[in-house]
Design goal:
Chain lengths: 393, 178
């Protein structure tokens, strides 16, 4: 093990390529929008890339608060990485601006006359989907996310420096209302930003499906990152095979939860068979998009189900890192299958989709790598750490 | 008599570490059929006595698949053959509606197979077990740790095995009568 393997050095080295990819792809993406003049496609691709990458910080924040409330040795392996992810919301707020610019190209409810028409049969919808209210809500979401990420990180760092056990209680006390706030803001955010692309369609389970997308994607990412740093002190103390087993089991649980929620939404809409609702699934599950749905069924449920059922696989971090990478790609396909069919009758992938994912992903990873540096990768003075280390074998 | 008179040899230890070390040494010496007894769970001990894989997961998988087939099959049979009803114009084989029950029966069958399979494969209930013939063995649920090498072990030899166990620093080595 050389000095260049140290987590901080690895993270610092990763920053530059991430930034180059992010900025390069962003420049290309914007250039394509101006030269190719297909502005609509720019915003569609951007929406997809943004919603997918938003899962990383939001999932990190949710898992972080979950661990503050429940405890358990698994959380110490990923806690500092979660905190780093939760400190990237300012960047996500800036990256939201292009969506604000493209609002009239993305959302049918911004068109003239839509509100008047909707007011006749759904007055609440007409009020809810108005531009000033839309932006007000977006500001609230980001204030909540930035605030939670900031406070939890700040107290965690103070706990490291002072060893004050009161900090732990503070974080725990914030996490309970914090998780409720997360649940509300995360679900309302996807209803605003994604579901309202089809303003006539609705599903009450939609928000929860995205909560699973968040924790599933973030958990896969965190397992991948933790596996890279697990050999280094102080992380090596807690990042034992048993802990990777726990993390893999949680990923397994999220796989099951995804299947449960995705199927439940389908079952309810299928059973109701209402014209306004069922078209969403007819389009995505029976038409030309059906093979993507089949891929998801296979690779978002059956394959990870049987892989993650295996104890020996979950205990090997290098193997889990590979599984996690594949599952991140699968999750990207899942979000693609939810968003893109709203715009296209048949599976279509544009260069701009790839560029948007690379641009936002590069920038986000750059911010994450920057935030993850400079702090020990485990909370040194957490009162529950000792117990976690003891039972880590 | 066809039954071996000796079930095995039992060594008694003072600490979990001593037991773990003894189990490792016995495995290294080539013994394969042994069992360890301890008042509390000791991680690694199962692996140290050579307890690696059981076929229970496979049995549970079969139970789960059987449950899934049963769950789906019952509904299919009922809805398509014996009590076919037109519900909201949906096809008789409305498989999405069958999935919840299919899932539940998969879980139920797998869980029951797991519990009863575990009991059966452990040979439970066992009203008689030779290890209880060792006078001190009651301490296995209090503060002593035991390693038993069974006479069924191909390498077992009453004298050599006793000497081997003595060399591991036990409190006592006793015969386990069958």
């Amino acid at each position: 093990m050389s000095l260049s393997d140290l987590p901080d050095v690895q993270l610092e080295q990763a920053q530059k390529p991430a930034l180059i990819v992010g900025v390069g792809a962003a420049v290309l993406l914007v250039a394509m929008a101006f030269v190719g003049a297909d502005r609509d496609q720019f915003f569609r691709s951007y929406l997809y890339g943004y919603v997918f990458w938003l899962a990383f910080p939001l999932g990190s924040l949710a898992l972080l608060m979950l661990h503050h409330l429940t405890g358990g040795g698994w959380g110490f392996v990923i806690r500092r990485l979660c905190e780093a992810g939760a400190r990237t919301f300012a960047l996500m707020a800036v990256l939201f601006l292009p969506l604000a610019v493209g609002i009239s190209r993305l959302y049918p409810w911004t068109r003239a006359g839509w509100a008047e028409e909707a007011a006749k049969h759904a007055p609440f919808k007409a009020t809810y989907l108005s531009q000033p209210f839309f932006f007000t809500r977006a500001v609230i979401y980001f204030v909540v996310w930035i605030g939670l990420g900031y406070l939890l990180s700040k107290w965690s760092m103070e706990e490291d420096q002072t060893g004050d056990p009161g900090m732990h209680n503070r974080m725990e006390a914030l996490s309970a209302p914090g998780l409720i706030l997360y649940g509300l803001t995360a679900t309302f955010a996807v209803i605003d930003w994604v579901m309202s692309v089809d303003p006539d369609w609705m599903s009450t389970m939609y928000g929860l499906i995205f909560v699973v997308v968040h924790v599933f994607t973030a958990m896969a990412f965190l397992i991948f990152m933790a596996s890279r740093f697990a050999d280094h002190e102080p992380l090596a103390k807690v990042a034992t095979p048993s802990r990777f087993h726990d993390l893999g089991t949680l990923l397994f649980a999220f796989t099951m939860l995804w299947a449960y929620l995705a199927f439940s939404q389908f079952l309810i809409i299928w059973a109701g068979n209402l014209k306004a609702e069922i078209t969403w699934y007819v389009h995505r599950g029976l038409g030309e998009w059906s093979w993507v749905a089949g891929l998801l069924l296979l690779f978002h449920f059956f394959v990870p189900f049987f892989i993650l059922l295996n104890r020996p696989i979950k205990r090997r971090k290098q193997l889990m890192a590979k599984v996690a990478l594949v599952l991140i790609v699968v999750s990207a396909l899942d979000v693609f299958w939810i968003i893109t069919p709203s715009f296209f009758p048949a599976p279509t992938i544009h260069l701009s989709d790839v560029l948007a994912v690379a641009a936002i992903g590069g920038l986000w990873l750059w911010a994450f790598a920057k935030q993850a540096q400079g702090r020990p990768l485990v909370p040194l003075h957490d009162p529950r750490m000792e117990e976690a280390v003891e039972h880590g074998a | 008599m066809s039954r071996p008179k000796l079930y095995g040899l039992m060594a008694e230890f003072d600490s979990p570490d001593a037991l773990l070390a003894a189990a490792h040494k016995a495995t290294a010496a080539g013994y394969r059929r042994m069992d360890a007894y301890s008042p509390m769970p000791i991680e690694e001990l199962a692996e140290a006595v050579g307890f690696h894989h059981t076929s229970l997961p496979l049995v549970v998988l079969c139970g789960g698949i059987l449950g899934g087939i049963t769950g789906f099959g019952m509904q299919y049979y009922g809805s398509v053959f014996t009590f076919s009803q037109n519900v909201a114009g949906k096809p008789l084989n409305s498989w999405p509606a069958f999935i919840p029950i299919t899932f539940e029966l998969t879980v139920l069958f797998a869980a029951l197979t797991c519990v009863f399979g575990m009991l059966a494969m452990n040979g439970l209930p066992t009203p008689y077990h030779p290890v209880f013939n060792v006078p001190n063995f009651a301490l296995a649920s209090r503060d002593k740790f035991f390693l038993c090498i069974k006479a069924r072990d191909p390498k077992f030899d009453a004298r050599a095995t006793r000497e081997f166990l003595q060399g591991l620093g036990p409190i006592e080595v006793s015969n386990v009568e069958a």
